[in-house]
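HOLO CASE FILE
Compound: guanosine-5'-diphosphate
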Amino acid sequence: MFDNLTSRLSGVIKTLRGEARLTENNIQEALREVRMALLEADVALPVVKEFIARVKEKAVGKEVIGSLSPGQALVGVVHQEIIALMGGEKADINLSTVPPAVILMAGLQGAGKTTSSGKLAKWLMENKKKKVLLVSCDIYRPAAIHQLGLLASQIGADFFPVQTGQQPKEIASAALSFAKTHFHDVMIVDTAGRLAIDEAMMKEIGELETLLKPIETLFVVDAMQGQDAVNTAKAFAEALPLTGVILTKLDGDSRGGAALSVLHVTGKPIKFAGVAEKLTGLEPFHPDRMASRILG
Ligand code: GDP
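Model generated. Tokens follow.
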């Protein structure tokens, strides 16, 4: 998805041939290429600016050592900074609390919340041997509750039965008692999304957050959303104490810049990536692997 960056960087390697040291002057053209590639990949402008400034700071004055060519040295710096931009270290899901560990899923409609709730339940059951309860608070779309129920039965997770007429907060507290009495380790709560940021939605999810005190509040965002993802992320990060991000549809034909911008805007690590529609299509997010993928 960052094909441009890869091809532009291979051009960069050539322009720097024969230089013994990286200077402000000789990396200027290379940085221009990186800047263009990031903008074309839909990374937000303020993020690009800061990124370029950091690469410059790290690169200028760098002695080119050993068998490394100057171009490779600069690409190395770009690589490190892309990893840093995506959060540096891999961030694990946090479940260390008195059970049930509540995971609250937030995001716009269509981002992949319900699907990711099911996938995450499956991942936790298989990889962490957890007993998981899936709960839907999306009373506005009965189809969404049904969809989560179906996912639960496909993966063999428990599903909290919602009574007709129950309000989101009632569902949440009833589900919490249910999870306690049935000894669930983890309770994943899917919430109602809207097509765009909406005050009523934010208020509702804020109230659910206060009531449930989740150990993880994960912002689910579609990697294909491009620049819109930045505004959405900003609104959610302001309204909720997010703990992490799930970036979905990375398998799609996205320009991927959203991945870099969203982290920058929320200040929270990407914990999982959706890489396929099927229920096995959720993976822990590795910034270093993603950086290698971006750079080809
Ligand atoms: P919600 O409205 O946020 O709950 O979104 P859904 O979970 O219903 O997902 C919306 C659509 O995106 C569905 O068709 C999902 O199958 C699809 N989807 C979600 N995550 C992924 C992913 O990682 N890759 C692909 N290809 N499709 C996904």
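CASE NOTES: The beta strands are 101-106, 132-136, 158-159, 186-190, 216-222, 244-248, 270-274, 282-284. Residues 107, 109-115, 193, 248-249, 251-252, 274-277, 281 surround guanosine-5'-diphosphate (CB under 6 Å).
CLOSED: yes
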